[in-house]
């Protein structure tokens, strides 16, 4: 963990103590790790006595994460899509901005120009490949780690207030950190390092209620999600000769099953359980584009495929991106052909 050393953590503590107005920003379409690390940091900062801390999001988080945000006053979480002027004014007025769980400003979508123009000091806390370090005054970037939540946990452990004692963390921070780590590892199914299990152990020892977290993140979905999962696995899943499993989810089907943000979370992982499948892709029609999630088994790079053919990136075995209409393809009906053709080129050029 080269970026987590006492020098960098002392610099971080100094920047926090000198800042008056602090914003926390994360990537668009925030997931459990994005919200978990943001909420944990919010509570740490208020615990340090900071009274002007805001979480600024590009868009709203899925409702199953509401158990984390209910501990924060409503006006301290501002969603740009709902209150754009306020979000931009607050970001412009900040003297310190934390950027968590993303590696470059464009991952915040409409917050990008505001972040680029902002004169605030900026601190990166992220676990993705290829961080844009030049955009930040201080960077904590580690890729051999489960999640941004675990990285934040390691940083907080090094601070003078917490001082290697997880019991000193605000309870809301501890719960949020455990949640973000759990969702990014798919409940210890991937990206689990020795440090991850040590973190989990310390947080459990400090009183985090893991059963309650699991109830919220895995057992509170609507019936529609399970029905859709059945339909997808039976009728919409294709497996190519190259060992690529893919699912194309058009608007019509999303409407039919009343799909909301978060309802398809985890679907892309399921086909990886099939022998011979090396890579799994979920292509989901969205406003004027197709959002793509990619997962791969060890030995095949989801990140490489996302960067080369899907305008994206991420981690070695879990990445994402987008296909633009009409630049990349005319519409959702051409997605299957696009995926088959480009994954064939990718896998045969890369590994054969
Ligand atoms: P998901 O499939 O869960 O949306 O994303 C998987 C991983 O890929 C996450 O770590 C996410 O941050 C990253 N990712 C998703 N979409 C994009 C994208 O458009 N660009 C980049 N660079 N990374 C992405
Ligand atoms: Mn993450």
Question: What order do the helices and strands come in, and which of them pair?
Answer:
Elements: H1 6-18, E1 22-26, H2 32-47, E2 53-57, H3 66-69, E3 77-79, H4 84-93, E4 96-100, H5 112-117, E5 121-126, E6 138-141, H6 148-157, H7 171-184, H8 194-205, H9 210-218, H10 223-236, E7 237-239, E8 244-249, H11 251-256, E9 279-286, E10 289-296, H12 302-309, E11 313-314, E12 318-324, H13 335-350
Parallel strand pairs: 1-2, 1-4, 2-3, 4-5, 5-6, 8-9
Antiparallel strand pairs: 7-8, 9-10, 10-12, 11-12
Helix pairs in contact: 2-6, 2-7, 6-7, 7-8, 7-9
This protein binds guanosine-5'-monophosphate (5GP) and manganese (II) ion.
Protein model, in words:
There is one protein chain. The chain has 352 residues and is of the alpha/beta class. The chain folds into 2 domains: 6-218, inorganic pyrophosphatase (n-terminal core) (Alpha-Beta Complex), CATH 3.90.1640.10; 224-348, Diaminopimelate Epimerase, Chain A, domain 1 (Roll). Helix content is 39%, strand content 18%. The chain is globular and about 55 Å long. The mean pLDDT is 97. The structure holds guanosine-5'-monophosphate and manganese (II) ion. Residues 33, 101, 127, 147-148, 184 line the site of manganese (II) ion. Residues 33, 101, 127, 147-148, 184 line the site of manganese (II) ion (MN).
């Amino acid at each position: 963990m080269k970026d987590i050393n006492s020098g960098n953590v002392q610099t971080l503590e100094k920047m926090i103590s000198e800042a008056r107005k602090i914003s926390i920003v994360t990537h668009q379409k925030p997931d459990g790790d994005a919200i978990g690390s943001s909420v944990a940091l919010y509570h740490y900062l208020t615990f340090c006595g900071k009274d002007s801390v805001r979480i600024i999001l590009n868009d709203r988080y899925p409702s199953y994460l509401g158990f984390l945000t209910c501990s924060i006053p409503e006006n301290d979480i501002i969603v740009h899509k709902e209150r754009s002027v306020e979000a931009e004014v607050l970001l412009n007025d900040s003297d310190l901005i934390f950027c968590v769980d993303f590696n470059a400003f464009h991952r915040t979508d409409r917050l990008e120009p505001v972040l680029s123009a902002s004169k605030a000091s900026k601190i990166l806390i992220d676990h993705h490949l290829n961080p844009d370090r030049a955009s930040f005054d201080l960077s904590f970037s580690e890729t051999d780690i489960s999640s941004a939540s675990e990285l934040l946990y390691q940083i907080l452990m090094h601070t003078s207030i917490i001082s290697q004692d997880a019991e000193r963390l605000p309870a809301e921070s501890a719960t949020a950190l455990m949640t973000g780590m759990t969702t990014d590892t798919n409940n210890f199914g991937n990206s689990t390092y020795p440090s991850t299990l040590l973190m989990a152990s310390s947080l459990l020892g400090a009183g985090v209620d893991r059963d309650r977290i699991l109830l919220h993140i895995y057992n509170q979905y609507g019936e529609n999600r399970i029905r859709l999962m059945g339909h997808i696995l039976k009728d919409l899943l294709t497996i190519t000769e190259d060992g690529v499993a893919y699912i194309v989810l058009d608007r019509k089907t999303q409407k039919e099953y009343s799909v909301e943000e978060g309802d398809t979370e985890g679907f892309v992982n399921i086909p990886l359980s099939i022998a011979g499948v090396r890579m799994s892709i979920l292509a989901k029609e969205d406003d004027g584009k197709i959002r793509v999630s990619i997962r791969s088994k060890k030995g095949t790079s989801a990140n490489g495929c996302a960067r080369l053919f899907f305008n994206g990136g991420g981690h070695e075995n879990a990445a994402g991106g987008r296909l633009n209409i009409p630049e990349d393809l005319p519409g959702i009906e051409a997605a299957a052909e696009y995926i088959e053709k480009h994954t064939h080129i990718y896998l045969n050029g890369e590994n054969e």
